Amino acid sequence: MAALFGALVYPAAGQLAVLHIQAIEGEGAVNAAGSHNSRPLVVEVTDETGKPVEGASVSFHLPEEGPGGSFGNGLRTDVTVTDAHGRAYFHTMLLNRTPGRFAIRIVASKEQARAGMVSFQYIAEPKNGSAAAASPTSSSNSGPSFMHGPLKWVVLAVLAGGAAAAGALVAGKSSSAASAVSSPTATSTSASGISIGGPFLTVGKP
User: Fold this and answer.
1) C-beta separation of 186 from 198 below 8 A
2) In the chain, where do the E strands start and end?
3) pLDDT tens-digit series, residues 98-125
4) CA 121 to each of CA 63, 106, 183: distance values in angstroms, whole numbers, following the listed order
5) Is-contact 67 96, C-beta < 8 A?
6) What is the pTM of this model?
7) Starting from the edge strand earliest in sequence, which strands make up the sheet with 20-25, in order?
8) 163-184, pLDDT tens digit by residue?
9) Taking a C-beta distance cutoff of 8 angstroms, is the pair 199, 180 a contact?
10) Does residue 82 contact residue 53 with C-beta atoms inside 8 Å?
11) Are 103 and 116 within 8 A, CB to CB?
């Protein structure tokens, strides 16, 4: 009769059986579009007893498309190790300009033990209206809107023409008055002295 044998594999003495990982800083951070991350993301790795695990490898993975960005190395993946407190950090991340929520996948491993989690961050919507507020036209207008642009020259031309016409009219009236004074027909024979009437000035005899 055939015998069946099985073997149970236990971790070697001193090896980790379980890892736990959690974000302790930077979770849910809101970042400006096209900028660097507003604060670092910090995770903590512990064993099954809650003791910090030093020297664990921790990898961070950004999305391939949509909201996200790249790490300081120019890639979407960065790897670091935990310190004596079981903590791993990444400080530099350049966000793209696609607003919305994105997930950072995080995997910790040491020896045969592994643990993973997902941390969510956000890229804020860009602010609108800044270009309109900075327009020099809105702050430099000193008159009605029709006085700016090509129509301004038409108005100035009309005004200039009106001024010329008015000058010609005044000149015409002046010459008419001069001719009227010197004209013999404008002389009055009245003996009443000086009289002013109509558009003429008459000088009589003393």
Assistant:
1) no
2) 20-25, 30-31, 41-46, 57-61, 69-71, 77-81, 87-90, 93-95, 100-110, 113-123, 194-197, 200-203
3) 999 999 999 999 999 999 999 999 999 9
4) 12, 13, 99
5) yes
6) 0.56
7) 20-25, 41-46, 87-90
8) 554 454 445 544 544 444 444 4
9) yes
10) yes
11) no
